[in-house]
Design goal:
Layout: E1 13-19, H1 23-34, E2 41-47, H2 52-58, E3 67-70, H3 79-89, E4 94-99, E5 102-104, H4 108-115, E6 120-123, E7 125-128, H5 131-139, H6 144-148, H7 150-155, H8 157-162, H9 175-181, E8 193-196, H10 197-202, H11 216-226, E9 230-233, E10 239-242, H12 252-264
Parallel strand pairs: 1-2, 1-4, 2-3, 6-9, 7-10
Antiparallel strand pairs: 4-8, 5-10, 6-8
């Protein structure tokens, strides 16, 4: 990792990566971040456990400028806490969020920064890769160079389709498509969105009262909107490539019960978030 910004200078953005033990995927993510066209950003790897494997893997990065690794006891699924802790530690005024199972396009950071607006949160999307191409990308992160090439990506559409790729159109970033369809709003997903730090503090971050997996990101959206902030879609501008895995939604319905109750009460600022009220 070769970040250009010194530790005594505020970076343009903080890239927050929530992870859980998957060092192979994180290796690909860090490779992709190394290739970013924008170099002035910090990386915060926030781990929802204290994995020895992750600690060993990240040892070589610990002395890098603008690289931080946060851990917490492995006490069930607590991504909301892990991300809130990263938000507090962020040095930048602008926050970019990805999950530990997506590899960003080389212009990912630059485009998020260039498209940022105060009072708005950017909502991107992901290309869902199938099992075969996910294995390729895990073993050879440099394959992102192929996916980023519009011509090569287009040539791969048939094999990608056979591998059950979804949202393939996201992998063909186009300002024309963004102009044509970008006004159609898309919801917040934790693997590709960004906002100003002050706006995240306004809603008090992620709601740590949500016990399950799922809907914690959409919970952010209605609370943002409740305080007058607006969604800004970057679906056709800023892609990430999602690695195939089985989806777990344990406790999703429990989350919805809490979220719906809060929505009825118009509780836009959560009580158990960045600040404990």
């Amino acid at each position: 990792m070769n970040q250009a910004t010194s530790t005594d200078t505020q970076p343009k953005a903080s890239v927050i990566i929530s992870v859980y033990k998957d060092t192979e995927a994180l290796n690909g993510i860090l490779y992709a971040l190394e290739r970013q066209t924008e170099k002035d950003f910090e990386i915060i790897v926030t781990e929802d456990c204290e994995s020895e494997g992750m600690e060993t893997f990240l040892a070589e990065f610990k002395n890098k400028n603008n690289f931080h690794h946060l851990t917490q006891p492995d006490d069930g699924w607590r991504k909301t806490l892990a991300v809130n802790r990263a938000i507090v530690s962020a040095k930048s005024d602008y926050l970019i969020f990805i999950d530990g199972d997506v590899l960003p396009n080389k212009n990912f950071v630059a485009d998020h920064i260039a498209t940022a607006e105060h009072g708005k949160f950017l909502t991107g999307r992901r290309v869902y890769l199938g099992p075969f191409f996910s294995k390729v990308l895990r073993k050879y992160p440099g394959f992102t160079r192929v996916l980023e090439n519009r011509f090569l990506f287009f040539l791969l559409l048939i094999p990608l389709h056979l591998d059950k790729v979804r949202n393939y159109e996201v992998g063909l970033p186009s300002r024309f498509f963004q102009w044509l369809r970008g006004k159609k709003l898309v919801g917040v997903i934790g693997c590709n969105f960004s906002c100003y730090k002050e706006d995240m503090y306004a809603i008090n971050g992620y709601n740590e009262d949500l016990p399950g997996v799922g809907a914690e990101d959409s919970d952010l959206q209605w609370r943002f909107e409740g305080l007058g902030m607006a969604s800004k879609s970057v679906k056709f501008l800023i892609p990430v490539y999602h690695l195939y895995h089985e989806h777990l939604r344990h406790g999703y319905e429990d989350n919805l019960v809490i979220i719906n109750k809060n929505r009825k009460a118009k509780a836009y600022v959560c009580k158990n978030g960045i600040i404990k009220m």
